[in-house]
Amino acid sequence: MSDKDSHKNCISINHICSCIEFSGSNCVDFLNNLLISDLPSLSLNKFHYTALCNPKGRIISSLWIAINDNDNLKLICPTNMKDELINFFNMRKFRLKINIIPNDDQILLDTNGVVDTNVNNNNQIENDNNSKFYHIIIGVNFPWINKENSEMFIPQHVNLDQHEGIMSFTKGCYPGQEIIARMKFLGKIKKRMAVIKNDNQAELLTMFKSRNQVSPIITDNSGNHLVQVIKKLPG
Q1: What is the end-to-end Cα distance of the chain in Å, rounded?
Q2: HSE toward the beta carbon, residue 28, CA cutoff 13 A
Q3: 76-104 burial string, b = 16+ CB within 10 Å, else e?
Q4: Where do the domains of the chain lie?
């Protein structure tokens, strides 16, 4: 398959997302102590969805990570979180010889929620579009946690435990790990992220008024309005 064909169903998301590049000794070990995924178990040169949590187990930001080797990797993050995240990581690297810099690679997202970067432009790639971005995110059952909903939800409430390889319950400690693990082993999940659909936007607003909104409201090709919200489970 040619490069042109491999990206014909992608959209460019550079005004929604930004790239941060890490280089230097033991970048993977550094981030493995901060993110919810078990980074050494992830396949190389491929972006994987992950997240950063605060000590209370609430997600600070959604991320995609691609590991080239133990000394070089890239993170895709919400653009409105980029500067905050760079500061967050720089404050925690202490004396580690790690460089953390913004990267201006082109960022693409396909209909399966798979990210790629640093590809050549071609006429097949559509321009940035928030609605198309969230259609894909909703379709693959991911939350997109950015500046607007940072530190509101724990990973289980936004279904990250329902995806293989995103959450690790066996690696060492990371921020929020104790609360996240307690929910898995000792607690009961009482709330889950779900998509609500309605052809009347005003009615939809009323329906989730008392619930936690995860995503913006988007409209599908049939005129229905969709939104991700946190709903209480029956019982």
Answers
A1: 50
A2: 17
A3: bbbbebbeebbeebeeeeeeeebebeeee
A4: 3-185, 191-232
Q: Which two tokens stand for residue 166?
A: 């995103």
Query: If we measure between CA atoms, which residue out of 126, 70, 79, 84 comes closest to residue 104?
Result: 79
Sign of CA dihedral 93, 107, 195, 82: positive
pLDDT at 16 over 90: yes
Q: Where are the beta strands (DSSP E) in 54-190?
A: 59-69, 72-78, 98-103, 107-109, 115-117
For residue 47, which of 26, 75, 89, 71 has the smallest C-alpha distance? 75
pTM value?
A: 0.92
Which tokens hold the place of 180? Answer: 């996240």
d(CA 29, CA 195): 36
Q: Which residues of 36-50 are buried (b: 16+ CB within 10 A; e: fewer)?
A: bbbbeebeeeebbbb
Do residues 213 and 145 touch, judged by C-beta distance below 8 A? no
**In the 8-state DSSP scheme, what is residue 158?**
G
Question: Per the CATH hierarchy, to which homologous superfamily does domain 3-185 belong?
Answer: Probable tRNA modification gtpase trme; domain 1 (3.30.1360.120)
* pLDDT tens-digit series, residues 164-213: 999 998 888 899 999 998 887 777 899 999 999 999 888 887 777 666 89
Query: Model confidence at 44, in pLDDT bands (50, 70, 90)?
Result: very high
